[in-house]
Specification:
Strand order of the largest sheet: 3-2-4-1-5-6-7
Shape: globular
CATH superfamily of the largest domain: P-loop containing nucleotide triphosphate hydrolases
Number of strands: 7
Number of helices: 13
Mean pLDDT: 84
Largest sheet: 7 strands, parallel
Radius of gyration: 22 Å
Strand content: 5-15%
Helix content: 40-55%
CATH architecture of the largest domain: 3-Layer(aba) Sandwich
């Protein structure tokens, strides 16, 4: 068993682009290790240069294949690309099922590409809990563009729009995505609409439908400095990717150089703040529930008290001696270094 390397010692190694250090820091962030929080705070203050692209869409729209083709195109421009692929969780191990990495196997040996699969582990909204920590770590590691591919989302799982500078919504012919967009708000969150699988004969119909919906919503658009383009691509033939990369480049200029871009960055910061606070509250609550919930549940079973007063008591217990308890949790665990 090798020595546990403190997270603070991994920061400079990650900044030099050392893949093992990047991987360990992401693993510790994903595990929610309190010992790593000081290092993550340092990383956050040093990050902020990368262009974060969120890519989402319904299952079956070809997101992973599109990410692989887009990454290959970005690499021809000399950009280092980090990919955080949010996968469904295994019901047995809790880990990512890794379907995305299988589809991106052609990129694995490229030193300018880093792919990390991340399990949702019950998180809603299409993102995993540590997704944005992983983005910061890759940003520090020198990756110019970071693509977050969400788990296949439905009608209201649109957190990616609050976590990325540029949101790409992927549709495909024959999936009914135009109806989903009307019902879901997927139309509104897109900075760029992509219709994949445009080598199919029915693709033009989907392109026309989405353009018509965008025209109907133009009067109420909250993006006066940007007109959302609709780009048809085919990962099979390679058609459309020049237009897609040009649209991404143009939107990067909007995201980093306009008033609406500044407002978007403020919204991202607020989302990050609230999600981090929510995670900390959940951790405190879980620790208190382990010791206090059984006795409170017994009182509830006997109907000695009502659920609201007992729930308030459990919440109050979450903050009792919280700081001292959390200091204990900052001690590094006794794990093998090759795991963490």
């Amino acid at each position: 068993m090798s020595r546990y390397v403190p997270s603070s010692e991994l920061v400079e190694r990650a900044a030099r682009g050392e893949v093992p250090a990047i991987g360990r820091l992401i693993s510790r962030a994903e595990a929610g290790m309190p010992e790593a929080r000081g290092a993550l705070a340092t990383i956050y203050r040093r990050a902020g240069r990368a262009h974060v692209i969120g890519l989402t869409g319904v299952p079956g729209s070809g997101k992973s294949t599109l990410v692989a083709a887009l990454t290959a195109r970005l690499r021809t421009q000399g950009l280092k690309v980090g990919i955080v692929a949010v996968d469904p969780s295994s019901p047995y191990s809790g880990g990512a099922i890794l379907g995305d990495r299988i589809r991106m196997s052609d990129l694995v040996n490229d030193p300018g590409v880093y792919i990390r699969s991340m399990a949702t582990r019950g998180a809603m909204g299409g993102l995993a809990r540590a997704t944005l920590d992983a983005v910061d770590i890759l940003d520090l590691g020198g990756f110019d563009t970071i693509i977050i591919e969400t788990v296949g989302v439905g009608q209201d799982e649109v957190e990616i729009a609050k976590a990325s500078h540029t949101t790409v919504v992927v549709s495909a012919p024959g999936l009914g995505d135009e109806i989903q967009a009307i019902k879901a708000g997927m139309l509104e969150i897109a900075d760029i609409h992509v219709v994949s699988k445009c080598d199919r004969s029915d693709a033009n119909r989907t392109l026309v439908d989405i353009k018509q919906m965008l025209t109907l919503g133009a009067a109420t658009s909250a993006k006066p400095e940007w007109q959302t383009p609709v780009v048809g691509v085919s990962s099979y033939t390679g058609d459309g990717f020049d237009a897609l990369t040009r649209a991404i480049d143009r939107h990067r200029d909007v995201a980093f150089g306009t008033a609406s871009g500044s407002r978007r960055q403020l919204a991202i910061a607020r989302f990050r703040l609230e999600k981090t606070a929510e995670n900390l509250l959940v951790e405190r609550f879980a620790r208190a529930a382990v010791t206090r919930a059984p006795a409170l549940a017994e009182r509830l079973r006997r109907r000695d008290a009502d659920p609201y007063s007992l729930a308030n008591e459990l919440l109050a217990a979450s903050f009792e001696r919280g700081s001292a308890h959390e200091r204990d949790h900052h001690r590094p665990p006794h794990f093998a270094e090759d795991h963490w």
